[in-house]
């Protein structure tokens, strides 16, 4: 999330904040990479998954690295913005592109479903000679 947020900040000419966001992304990526390698070396039954070898994970690492280098290069040549000490806050609630969930409500019971009707469906009272043909 910090990587893509950094790309958005760079596109809106906030290069200093983009660098800080990408540095935070790099930090979390390194932590995730260590956890993935530890998970891949775990012994146990079944097939072993290696999350650090998945395409998304490999592409994300190079994307973070390349975007951070681009931001640092452009900040040195064009923007000359100060890199903040704290990472920018991520907006976790999406306000576009999502549909509001509709709460589920059970439909009203039909008048034919009386307690007597429901009791008639007792499977323990079925005929003994109930063979499928």
Detail the topology: elements first, then pairings.
Elements: H1 2-11, H2 15-40, H3 55-79, H4 115-119
Helix pairs in contact: 1-2, 1-3, 2-3
Description:
There is one protein chain. The protein is mainly α and 133 residues long. It has a domain at 1-78. The protein contains four helices and no strands. It has helices spanning 2-11, 15-40, 55-79, 115-119. The chain is elongated and about 85 Å long. The model has no long low-confidence stretch (mean pLDDT 87).
Care to give the gist of this entry?
The chain is mostly helical and 133 residues long. The chain has helices at 2-11, 15-40, 55-79, 115-119.
Task: Indicate the mean pLDDT.
Answer: 87
Query: Main β-sheet, in a few words?
Result: none
Rounded to an integer in angstroms, the radius of gyration calculated over CA atoms is 28 Å
Number of helices: 4
> What is the approximate shape?
elongated
Sheet/helix structural class: mainly alpha
The strand count comes to 0
Write down the secondary-structure element order: HHHH
Stretches where pLDDT falls below 50 for ≥5 residues?
none
Q: State the separation between the terminal residues, measured CA to CA.
A: 59 Å
% residues in beta strands: under 5%
Helix content: 40-55%
Domain BRO1: 1-104
Family: Belongs to the BROX family.
Protein name: BRO1 domain-containing protein BROX
Organism: Alaudala cheleensis
